[in-house]
Specification:
Length: about 500
């Protein structure tokens, strides 16, 4: 989806002339990095504008004006608003104006939020934030939370978008019946699937693509909806990184080097043909509502649905005679359910952890990089160990704060219990680590399966009464980062009190 500008235009004496500042977002050179920054918790604030980094600080004191604001939906629909005194209007007030303009029910106020979005940064605004002022601090935000070059920081400008609130629970979303609301959620989920931001197995992608076919094309017509017809439109229904195009030999080589099975029009056609027929025509609102709901139900099975995205890097395992490693680009997806580390290139999960399964922290040593530390249970040659993963990212502080805030929200929502399965998780935590048995996924090669072997972790094993370090040495412990009143299935391997701890 191309990004559009958040236009702020001052009305002049002539009704046909406008003057003012256009906030135009530009794509990053890579085009695929979509780090995000959440500003919803009280711990996460907007940094103060500084003249050292911001080129817009000279226009920070703007008087009341009547301005036209363009708010974009995920499907590129534009909502044009005329707002009085925009510099002082809050996100909550502007959000309600958008809601009224779209004629959405009152309950949608909690479901959606206003976001400031560019190819480098995605910001969900708190209700009390003032979008106009945050826009003028955009360069400060890029400087603090991204690795953009000076030119990229100077040129990048955000667009204002209307999106799903990441703190809205899926269980409440599943109860929504309003067709207009479901359509907005459907369009956003479809965008994330097609862009590869929601890793999904090919079989599930084909089912989701078939639902999109039904929405866009109507009922299956064997004379019109042929394989050739779908082939020309394949990336409208399936993620582009799964679509096989070009010469057969090149496709075969691509298949061999990829962790994914390539998609083709035959699989999509088969899934489209096998969709159950609805009694209503697809143009009927009731039929569309069912299709939107079915698509969202399928997406709800993904642990990273409705997440916030952050960009980072992790160490690669050492390979070759020289034991060279390097780093791998990853996307860190954080939702109300947990944390997922996604391979930016391969579009599959490297590590998926529920909040009960991890301990975490954020560090920023002097003259070193920001690091998010994730600690979890694992095995090393059959021995239970504590595994420690380092995620290098300038947004590590934001990720740490968001993890803590999501845990607090879950704890409050469940009356002290993190989630409905916490009872079983709590009982499991009372057993030794070796006694725990994790359920196997039906698809062992699923993109949703954790790939621990592809991670370079710091491992700690218990050797009798001592803690044996398994390269390299860790400097601090992160076991205390879990909330003390939260039940957990995470078990730390500990040694005697008089021994030096890792």
């Amino acid at each position: 989806m191309p990004y559009f500008p958040f236009l702020l235009m001052q009305r002049s004496s002539s009704p046909n002339q406008f003057q003012g500042q256009s906030f135009q977002a530009r794509r990053s050179p890579g085009g695929s990095r979509f780090p995000s920054i959440m500003m919803e918790g009280d711990r996460l604030g907007i940094p103060q504008s500084t003249e050292d980094h911001s080129q817009r600080s000279s226009i920070s004191s703007a008087g009341p004006r009547n301005l036209d604001v363009l708010v974009y939906l995920i499907d590129d629909t534009v909502v044009r608003l005329t707002v009085d005194n925009l510099p002082s209007i809050t996100a909550h007030e502007l959000h309600r104006i958008v809601l009224e303009s779209l004629r959405l029910p009152e309950g949608a106020l909690e479901l959606f939020s206003l976001w400031l979005v560019s190819p480098f940064l995605e910001l969900q605004l708190k209700p009390k934030h003032q979008p106009y002022k945050v826009c003028r601090q955009w360069q400060d935000l890029l400087f603090r939370f991204t690795s953009c070059s000076k030119d990229e920081i100077f040129e990048d400008e955000p667009s204002l978008q209307f999106r799903r609130n990441i703190f809205f629970p899926k269980r409440k979303e599943a109860q929504i019946q309003d067709e207009d609301v479901l359509r907005l959620l459907y369009e956003e989920a479809k965008y994330n699937i097609l862009e590869g931001r929601y890793p999904c197995d090919l079989a599930d992608c084909e089912v989701l693509g078939a639902l999109v076919c039904r929405v866009n094309l109507g009922r299956y017509d064997p004379e019109q909806h042929t394989a050739c017809f779908l082939k020309e439109r394949l990336d409208s229904f399936l993620p582009s990184h799964l679509c096989r195009r070009g010469h057969r030999l090149l496709s075969a080589l691509w298949k061999r080097g990829s962790a994914h099975s390539p998609a083709d029009e035959q699989g999509l056609l088969r899934a489209f043909r096998e969709l159950p027929e609805e009694e209503e025509a697809c143009e009927d609102r009731a039929a569309l509502r069912k299709l939107y709901y079915s698509y969202l139900q399928k997406c709800h099975e993904l642990p990273h649905y409705g997440c916030a995205f952050f960009y980072g890097e992790i160490d690669k395992p050492a390979q070759g005679l020289l034991h060279r490693g390097g780093r791998k680009s990853v996307v860190v997806a954080i939702s109300l359910e947990g944390v997922s580390i996604i391979d930016s290139k391969e579009k599959h999960i490297l590590l998926g952890l529920a909040f009960q399964e991890l301990s975490w922290d954020h560090t920023f040593p002097n003259e070193e990089e920001h690091i998010l530390w994730l600690e979890f249970d694992g095995e090393n040659e059959g021995t239970p160990v504590n595994k420690l993963l380092k995620v290098y990212s300038k947004q590590a502080e934001l990720m740490s704060g968001l993890i803590e805030y999501c845990i607090e929200l879950n704890t409050a929502a469940e009356g002290g219990t993190l989630d409905p399965s916490a009872a079983s998780s709590s009982s499991a935590s009372q057993s030794p680590p070796t006694d725990r048995r994790h359920p196997k996924l039906q698809r062992q090669n699923s993109v949703l399966c954790s790939r621990i072997q592809h991670l370079s972790t710091i491992d700690y094993v218990e050797d009798g009464k001592e803690i044996k370090r398994v390269k390299p040495r860790r400097t601090t412990s992160f076991f205390g980062r879990q909330l003390s009143n939260a039940p957990t299935s995470y078990s730390a391997v500990r040694g005697a009190e008089n021994l030096e701890q890792g």
